[in-house]
């Protein structure tokens, strides 16, 4: 079985191709939209994805050394994500499905991140940290679905860091030589400033932390503010994670999503793993950010259990939660 996967939920337009036997991933091509200034405007995202889609599709097929006729199914991320961006991927997937008579496989973007984590880390029964620009979720698989033990109550951890560095003119670009701008800034800081620390049960709140940090700009060294906001945010995440580990007694902790690439977070998680005697399994950088390979791979798993959707019912779902998705391939 060969599945072509399309990812377009946010800043990245990606196309991946997955096979139902090793090495599983045959292609993983993408292009990310980076605004010249400010945040991402939905209209700019749509324009970028529409212009990049043809080139990325062709590159993926060339990388896998196959033609579109060799593909069995078309998988597409229908949510969660930004509406105009989602529509580009959905429109391309529907067009390919109709023109080449291929069944369409609906994929939840979050499930894509989680399943590529299972594949690349070889985790068996982990507690999962899903950390990206739009999501901060602590979850694990139980009775047919991924159940949420904790999540952000407002903005996501990755989004909080992006907004801070943008507001203090450290970004865009947000990632420089593999490092987030807040990590680069934090390396020159050492003073831990007093900022809000909000953990409620296993849920976290980052909006007050962001506001308080921005109010310190001009009053404290920017490097110390960067250091403080990052350290406090990561400590909040670790406290919530420790509570979930205590509740679930899991012996593996799998980290997926773009924030998983943070070197400083990795060090904290490794220390947590030693303290709790838990194996830390972090998705490789190539598959940490948004990518088409994870959609193709999750689509392949879904297709193996007959999960398809009619083209005329393939609506985008910008607020599609991970705990709303049935996972028949793990039962």
Topology:
Layout: E1 2-7, E2 12-19, E3 25-32, H1 42-64, E4 73-79, H2 83-100, E5 103-108, H3 109-121, E6 127-131, E7 136-142, E8 145-151, H4 157-167, E9 175-176, E10 179-180, H5 181-186, E11 199-200, E12 203-204, H6 207-215, H7 222-248, E13 252-256, H8 263-276, E14 279-282, H9 292-304
Helix pairs in contact: 1-2, 3-9, 4-6, 6-7, 7-8
Any key phrases for this structure?
ATPase_NBD, EC 2.3.1.234, iron, N(6)-L-threonylcarbamoyladenine synthase activity, 14 strands, five-stranded mixed sheet, 331 residues, Nucleotidyltransferase, domain 5, globular, alpha/beta, 2 domains, transferase
* Structural class category: alpha/beta
- Helices and strands, in N-to-C order? EEEHEHEHEEEHEEHEEHHEHEH
CATH class call of the largest domain:
Alpha Beta
CATH architecture of the largest domain: 2-Layer Sandwich
Question: What's the main sheet like?
Answer: 5 strands, mixed
Helix content: 40-55%
How many structural domains? 2
Strand order of the largest sheet: 3-2-1-4-5
Radius of gyration over all CA atoms, rounded: 20 Å
| Stretches with pLDDT under 50, minimum 5 residues | none
Number of DSSP strands? 14
- Average pLDDT confidence is 95
GO molecular function: iron ion binding; N(6)-L-threonylcarbamoyladenine synthase activity
EC number: 2.3.1.234
InterPro entries: ATPase_NBD (IPR043129), Gcp-like_dom (IPR000905), KAE1/TsaD (IPR017861), Kae1_archaea_euk (IPR034680)
Main location: cytoplasm
